[in-house]
Design brief:
The chain is mainly α. It has helices at 10-27, 34-41, 48-62, 73-86, 105-118, 121-128, 163-197, 212-219, 221-247, 251-260, 280-309, 314-341, 368-403, and strands spanning 136-140, 348-352.
Length: 415
């Protein structure tokens, strides 16, 4: 059986349940007390507001919906409902809960356990809120194996298109892009100055210089006490996460009793998903069934699309062939990239920025040369996509020029 199905002594399990819930609460932002969980099992209304706030804090820290401020309780409830349903929460009772926080604590407890079961929630929250001591930058090589390819052909707009409005939007986009690039360049220049002025000050010879946070500690001792409190808080959450992983085996049988106390829905509600609940043969059978269902859905959509665009003439046939060729090129590029890279792990996630001197052996981690190669590869992919889009625009302009021979089309310079 799975990790959450290990044998637990019943006598020890009854006493370990409050401790397991307490350790879970310490890993969550503003986690409620075990008494709130107990009241939620019996659907007590006084437990609902705390669980609404907890779900809002958890989902907002995961960054799934982009919520930054803390709105009113009614707005929090609407936002939590929207995010859970968009992630595939299976129970219909969530959408029927009152948004004023007057009830539904048992359903909210089930929603929280659903989030815990489908992902390592404490670990993700700790990764989102960890204390950064070094200057980091996000790097990801997972999506640059091949070019983005040609976009899917789209039908023309029904109404007229305001060219001046499109030009204004393009100008606004270019201005904001230049502003973003200038701010990033200024940030990199300031980081370079700090790294250069503090070279040789770090106790770790592989780093050689101080980061912005470490420089701030030297400038303001009070910030050091604040950093110490943040590190102590993070260590306490890490210890609580380890304790939760040791004690969670008594939490899931208790959640089975919570689910059993819920009235049945129509259709019958799915149980709280738990990994390692099925054997390999059962999982393989389910995967085959899902594959057949997906194939049937794809065939139905393809037939509907061909029936809708079949009468559009030669233009859509040419676009379809171009799309098929682009997909073939994508597959070839992915296969070549896999053969070159083998099974080596690709860089993903934040990496610390470290300035290295010429002739000095670099320390562990991702080097600047690797990041430059990643950016150059991504730039080449984007340039290829831009050329493909420009060719499509030229073909469209040629078609329009043929339809309106009395007009003179003058392409902009450099295009």
């Amino acid at each position: 059986m799975g990790r959450r199905r290990r044998r637990v002594d019943r006598a020890d399990g009854a006493g370990a349940l409050p401790e397991a819930i307490a350790s879970l609460s310490r890993t969550l932002p503003g986690g409620p007390s075990p008494e709130t969980f107990r009241r939620a099992k019996f659907d007590r209304p006084e437990a609902a507001p705390a669980l609404w706030r907890l779900l809002f804090c958890v989902l907002s820290q995961l960054g799934v919906g982009g919520a930054t401020a803390s709105p009113a309780p009614e707005a929090q409830a609407r936002w939590v409902k929207s995010e859970l349903l968009s992630q595939g929460y299976p129970r219909q009772g969530l959408a029927q809960l009152p948004e004023d926080g007057s009830g539904g604590s048992r359903e909210l407890l089930l929603a929280l356990s659903w989030l815990l079961a489908r992902q390592p929630l404490p670990e993700r929250l700790l990764a989102q809120t960890h204390v950064q001591l070094g200057d980091e930058m996000p790097v990801c090589e997972c999506d640059i194996l091949a070019s983005q390819g040609l976009p899917a052909p789209r039908a023309e707009a029904d109404g007229p298109v305001d060219a001046r409005h499109l030009q204004w939007l393009m100008g606004k986009l270019r201005f904001r892009w230049r502003t973003l690039m200038a701010s990033q360049q200024e940030q990199c220049a300031l980081l370079g100055k700090i790294h250069w002025y503090t070279r040789g000050c770090h106790s770790d010879r592989r780093l050689g210089h101080l980061s912005v946070a470490e420089t701030e500690l030297l400038r303001d001792p009070e910030s050091g006490r604040q950093l110490l409190r943040r590190l102590e808080s993070e260590n306490a959450r890490l210890e609580a996460a380890l304790e939760w992983r040791h004690r969670e085996v008594v939490f899931w049988p208790w959640m089975d009793t919570v689910l059993g106390a819920c009235p049945p829905e129509t259709p019958q509600p799915a149980s709280v998903p738990r990994p390692c609940e099925f054997g390999a043969e059962e999982l393989e059978r389910q995967l085959r069934a899902l594959q057949e269902e997906l194939r049937a859905a794809v065939e139905a959509r393809r037939a509907a699309w061909e029936a809708r665009v079949g009468g559009r003439g030669l233009e859509w046939s040419v676009a379809q062939r171009a799309t098929q060729e682009a997909v073939g090129q994508e597959l070839v590029a992915l296969r070549q990239a896999w053969e070159r890279g083998g099974d080596l792990a690709r860089a993903h996630g934040p990496c610390r920025l470290v300035r290295t001197e010429a002739g000095v052996p670099a320390g562990p981690g991702l080097q600047a040369a690797q990041v430059i190669r990643v950016l150059q590869s991504r730039e080449a992919c984007l340039e290829e996509t831009l050329r493909q889009l420009q060719a499509q625009c030229q073909q469209q302009l040629a078609r329009l020029a043929g339809a309106l021979p009395s007009l003179i089309w003058i392409l902009p310079p450099g295009r």
